[in-house]
């Protein structure tokens, strides 16, 4: 290949190179923000929310149960994980071990729920459609307005096999394959800008995710798409079943008083003194 | 820039490998951000310098390895504390991690700067 140097018209730079790049960037931004418009903000399903909160209560019991006295803790644990078998006789019906624990009774997963909910099904579909439509539009845009221009020269040698693909619309057989037309510039911008766009928009995206997570914690956010109540309940009831309970108040006097906590032998003395004083008092009154 | 925000992903029990998932994601984001931005800048520099062909490729590899090395130095050459890597994983894997995914960004800016300076 003969080395050749072309100087391109600056008008091509001004009216093709830069506009295509800017339009691609704006299209990526659009593709990022438009799905947010379609996100449904409708309140969460009440039944689903109930299950989540049951799970949350069980978790809180497991984590903070040490502040409860043994009996109180056991009562709550029973509420969550008791089995239906062996009902105890002395309790009224439904309150003893005969009750089925709240965690032992997950509702059967409804396979039609996800399908019947149109917004859940439409979400990914809209995203995909948006991607395809914008890509098609961009491809048509670049090939319609910028066909036949030699856009850029890639700074590395290419073999003449690439001519057909990268110089579409430029039918000059002697042109160095490094000079490419709008289609390849379009491809280059599309793939190369993706990383940078993610970098630029990642901040806001993650901030939104954090906000959503916080809302979900407060019990008012949209539910995460994959919540398998049966599995989560089973895991939680197992963990709750094997977790040990130690009451935090067991030796609380000792911990509060520290070194001043009286040893039992010393404990007796002031009690004796007080009883003596009481006796003296009583004598005086007599 | 964002390097200062790197936080240790490993919690108290280092040996058992408790990972703070939030810090881990934060670190990965910072590493990707450093690499992506440096790839873009290196591409522009390469294009302005007028490097073509294999020279540009070599410059890209050098830049990428340097950035990764700098990140490793920031992590004290033990990335198991900051990323999901195993305890004694070598540094070679980190140097060239994600090389191909970012090469297209480098090529884009290389082409752009080269075209603006030398072709137009």
From TrEMBL, chain A:
Kindly list the biological process annotations in GO that this record carries: protein folding in endoplasmic reticulum
Where found, per UniProt?
A: Membrane
Q: How does it sit in the membrane?
A: Multi-pass membrane protein
Q: What's a GO cellular component annotated to this UniProt protein?
A: EMC complex
The Basic and acidic residues compositionally biased stretches are: 84-95
- Asked if the keyword Transmembrane helix belongs to this entry, the reply reads yes
What InterPro entries does the record tag this protein with?
EMC3, EMC3/TMCO1
Q: Which domain of life is it from?
A: Eukaryota
Where are the residues of the annotated region Disordered? Answer: 84-110
Q: What is its main location?
A: membrane
What residue intervals traverse the membrane?
A: 12-30, 129-152, 183-202
* Key words, A-Z: Membrane, Transmembrane, Transmembrane helix
The similarity annotation says: Belongs to the EMC3 family.
Q: Could you identify this protein by its name?
A: ER membrane protein complex subunit 3
What is the protein's species of origin? Tribonema minus
Automatic annotation (TrEMBL), chain B:
Q: Which UniProt keywords apply?
A: Endoplasmic reticulum, Membrane, Transmembrane, Transmembrane helix
Q: How does it sit in the membrane?
A: Multi-pass membrane protein
InterPro entries linked: Emc6 (IPR008504), EMC6-like (IPR029008)
Major localization class: endoplasmic reticulum
Transmembrane annotation, as ranges: 30-49, 55-73, 94-117
* Any single biological process term in GO: protein folding in endoplasmic reticulum
Q: In which domain of life is the source organism classified? A: Eukaryota
Q: Name one GO cellular component term.
A: EMC complex
Cellular compartment(s): Endoplasmic reticulum membrane
Pfam families, per this entry? Answer: EMC6
Record's family? Belongs to the EMC6 family.
Q: What is this protein called?
A: ER membrane protein complex subunit 6
**Which organism is this protein's natural source?**
Tribonema minus
Source lineage: Eukaryota, Sar, Stramenopiles, Ochrophyta, PX clade
């Amino acid at each position: 290949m003969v080395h050749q140097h072309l100087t391109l018209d600056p008008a091509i730079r001004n009216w093709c190179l830069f506009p295509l790049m800017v339009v691609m960037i704006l299209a990526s931004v659009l593709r990022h923000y438009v799905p947010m418009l379609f996100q449904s903000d409708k309140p969460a399903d009440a039944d689903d929310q109930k299950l989540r909160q049951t799970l949350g209560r069980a978790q809180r019991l497991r984590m903070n149960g040490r502040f409860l006295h043994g009996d109180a803790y056991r009562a709550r644990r029973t509420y969550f994980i008791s089995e239906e078998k062996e009902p105890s006789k002395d309790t009224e019906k439904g309150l003893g071990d005969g009750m089925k624990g709240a965690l032992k009774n997950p509702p059967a997963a409804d396979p039609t729920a996800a399908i019947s909910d149109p917004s859940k099904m439409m979400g990914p579909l809209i995203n995909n459609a948006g991607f395809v439509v914008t890509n098609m539009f961009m491809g048509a845009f670049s090939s319609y307005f910028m066909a036949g221009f030699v856009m850029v020269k890639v700074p590395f040698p290419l073999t003449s096999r690439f001519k057909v693909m990268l110089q579409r619309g430029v039918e000059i057989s002697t042109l160095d394959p490094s000079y490419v037309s709008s289609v390849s510039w379009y491809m280059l911008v599309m793939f190369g800008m993706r990383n940078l766009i993610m970098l630029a928009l990642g901040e806001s995206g993650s901030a939104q995710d954090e906000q959503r997570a916080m809302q979900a914690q407060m019990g008012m956010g949209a539910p995460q798409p994959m919540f398998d109540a049966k599995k989560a309940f089973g895991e939680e009831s197992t963990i709750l079943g094997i977790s040990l309970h130690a009451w935090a108040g067991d030796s609380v006097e000792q911990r509060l008083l520290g070194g001043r906590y009286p040893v039992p032998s010393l404990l007796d003395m002031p009690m004796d003194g007080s009883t003596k004083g009481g006796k003296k008092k009583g004598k005086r009154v007599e | 820039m964002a390097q200062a925000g790197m936080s240790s992903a490993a919690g108290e029990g280092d040996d058992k490998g408790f990972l703070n998932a939030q810090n881990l994601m934060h670190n990965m984001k910072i590493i990707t951000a450093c690499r992506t931005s440096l790839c873009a800048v290196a591409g522009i520099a390469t294009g302005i310098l007028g490097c073509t062909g294999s020279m540009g490729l070599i410059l890209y590899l050098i830049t990428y390895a340097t950035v990764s090395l700098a990140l490793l130095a920031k992590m004290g050459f033990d990335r198991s504390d900051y990323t999901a890597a195993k305890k004694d994983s070598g540094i070679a894997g980190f140097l060239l991690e994600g090389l191909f995914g970012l090469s297209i960004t480098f090529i884009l800016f290389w082409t752009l700067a080269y075209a603006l300076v030398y072709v137009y």
